[in-house]
Each structure stands twice: as C-alpha cells, then as structure tokens.
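Posting this for the archive.
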Amino acid sequence: MEINLPPYEIKLREQNGRRQIFDFLRRRYVSLTPEEWVRQHFVHFLIEHKGYPKGLLANEVELRVGEKKLRCDSLLYNKVLQPQMIIEYKAPHIEITQRVFDQITAYNFLLHVDYLIISNGLQHYCCRMNYEKNNWEFLQEIPNYEVIVKNEK
C-alpha cells in the first residue's frame, strides 16, 4: 500500500489465514487493515522523525459517554498524562471530509486537547486548538514534539 509516510522496519505475520502487523505501542500483533497500515506508519513517523516519546503515545483508547463507547485511534499525553493530541486515521482510499473532522471534534468535546491530527496516509491535517476564540488553526506541517512541549498551557 503506497502512502505518504516514511518507511520503517515492519513486522508482519500470518495467523489463521489473516495478515497481522506488530503494534509496538500495544505490544502485540493486530489485524492488518488499510487503516492499521496508516496508524503504524504514522506512529513510527511521530516517534522516529518528530521526536514524540513512545511512552506518551497510546493506540485504540476507549472513551465513554454515558453508555456509549468511543475509541480514539491514537492519543498523545503530556508529561502529567493528560491527553494533549488526538490522532484519527483513515484508510488511504477514504477521503478526508467534514464528517471525519466532525468525528474527531466529538472526541475533543470529551478530551479538550491542544492538537488534532487526521491522516489517511496520503494527506495529513494538523490543527492547533484555540479555546479562547473557539476555533482551530490549520498548521502547515505536523509539529515536532519540542514545539508541542513549548506551546503547552
């Protein structure tokens, strides 16, 4: 699958006729779907190229709103383990539309983070939240971790 992210040393296996990819954050093999392919490449990109600490990232984080369960694709926590960034992935063939932004915005109503990222592996969008003006600013690129730490509230 061609995507717009740097390569890394991928660990694949086949089990019970299904292809799996190793998720080093969850420390286990997971089903290899197009979305998972994007997630694994993006997380490695953040760690290896943008300086994000592996220990502050988590994949498939469950959120609860009453009886309803939501699942964030990835979260970045700050040093006191409060969510700081939500990352939403789509398969490369899925277009990033307003509906995808609505989805990540719904998660942010619960988490109130500083940054939102959406990627389908081909296009990547990063927004920095401005809660005083009740809007967000699209950034030209994914910030390095040191920029995020410097901008913490």
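The two ends are 38 Å apart (CA to CA). Residues 53-150 form a domain with the tt1808, chain A fold (CATH 3.90.1570.30).
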